[in-house]
Amino acid sequence: MTMKILCTALLIAITYPFVAVSAQSIDTTHLSTTSQPVPGSGLTVTGYVEAYYSHDFTAPKTSQERPSFLYNHRRNREVNINLAFVKAAYSSDRMRGNLALQVGNYAQYNYAAEQELTKTIFEANAGVKLAKNRDLWLDAGLFASHIGFESAISKDCWTLTRSLLAENSPYYLSGAKLTYNTPNGKWTVLGMVTNGWQRIKKLDGYSGPALTTQVQYRPSANLTLNWSSFVGADRPDSLRQTRFFNNVYAIVNPQGRFGLILGFDIGADRKPVVRAGSDQRVGSGSYVWYSPVVIARYKTSDKSYVNGRVEYYADPNGVLIATGTANGFQTVGYSLGYDCAILPNALFRIEGKVYDSKDPIFEGKSSRSRTNTSLTTSLAVSF
Questions:
Q1: What is 27-38 written as a DSSP string?
Q2: Do β-strands 371-382 and 210-220 pair in parallel, antiparallel, or remain unpaired?
Q3: Alpha-carbon distance 161 to 354, whole Å?
Q4: 140 near 126, Cβ under 8 Å?
Q5: What is each CA distance from 106 to 103, 162, 374, in whole angstroms?
Q6: E-state strands within the chain
Q7: What's the Cα-to-Cα distance from 35 to each of 143, 218, 229, rounded to whole Å?
Q8: Fewest Cβ atoms closer than 10 Å to its Cβ: which of 19, 25, 192, 235?
Q9: Can you tell me the distance from the alpha carbon of 372 to that of 221, in angstroms, rounded to the nearest whole number?
Q10: Following CA atoms 24, 25, 27, 30 in sequence, which dihedral angle do they give, to the nearest 10 degrees?
Q11: Rama region for 158: left / alpha / beta (φ>0; ψ in -120 to 50; rest)
């Protein structure tokens, strides 16, 4: 029944009349943004607004939120704003800087642990080029995370909603980083000292800092290979729980008619000590979580795509997603979506998604459910 609902809704969207509106050839993951340059300077101003509606068929009608492990498109049965921001960017030969202010559900849920004054900051950083003849930069401030192939900006992602591995790894990082791009443009190497695992304000009781890295290789326009890592903690020092995390992905043929993304996350938190000052831990080894994902996309016209996703997320010990059930969070996800660029800078999307968990972890109309079915639509405009 739930799959019938999804297929019917997607068929309606695909045949809806406005898809025939003419437009230039557009990659819907890279909609054109009309920047507004300030005459006589290297300053540009851009903006982005994504409105959405999400309908959870499993939860009670009065439930106002999607499951708590989601941090985007989380409001249920209401039209809302996932992310809206205005950004000013300055760039010259040896200096650059960015400042973006945000509102929306993305900020509401992802920045819940931050101080009030910083919750509206989507991006704020400054950088200098360290070598005249080398593409080597030192930047400091608050950045969009380099970990993973998805970001908070939905139009830049292949699917409307984020994958489970993206929702439960850093969307933003604060600190200082060195970035080097090779002259041939094929390699990017990055090292960063951060305040923690998606933290502007360092966690109370954590001395830090944390370290993150990125190595990206682009042998051609049709292939990107990436490895990112994190070493630090997201628990107080007294627990002595060092976190080791790795993200790897490959993006194949992103501009072609058929494209593919293969991604994998794996992380581990050391088991905590039994009490502060003790060397004895609650057990040997670490609490491990991991998540593979496959996303496929097919270009149906110059301005439209269909996409599908299969993913699995295993966090049996509840490191990132606590369920309070016997098997923890062990969930398979499936999604099917359709994207249409109505205009060069306006993108309509619709996506049906099903989660299937090992335990009954989802809120149902009369009892807990092992499955969750939803339909989400969005309209994103960039300028």
A1: -TTS-----EEP
A2: unpaired
A3: 12
A4: yes
A5: 8, 11, 18
A6: 36-37, 43-56, 79-91, 95-103, 121-129, 135-144, 172-181, 187-194, 210-220, 223-232, 243-252, 258-270, 286-301, 304-315, 329-343, 346-357, 371-382
A7: 20, 27, 33
A8: 25
A9: 37
A10: -40
A11: alpha
Residue with the two structure tokens 């930047």: 139
Those residues whose C-beta lies under 8 Å from the C-beta of residue 310, and which sit 6 or more positions away, are 293, 294, 332, 333, 334
Amino acid, res. 183: P
What is the C-alpha separation between 147 and 264, in angstroms, rounded? 11
- For the chain, percent of residues with pLDDT exceeding 90: 85
pLDDT value at position 282? 80
Look at the chain and report how many structural domains it folds into: 1
**Mean pLDDT within 106-128:** 97
* Structural domain of 152: 2-382
> Does the predicted model carry a pTM greater than 0.85?
yes
Q: Which residues pair with 306 in a beta bridge?
A: 298, 338
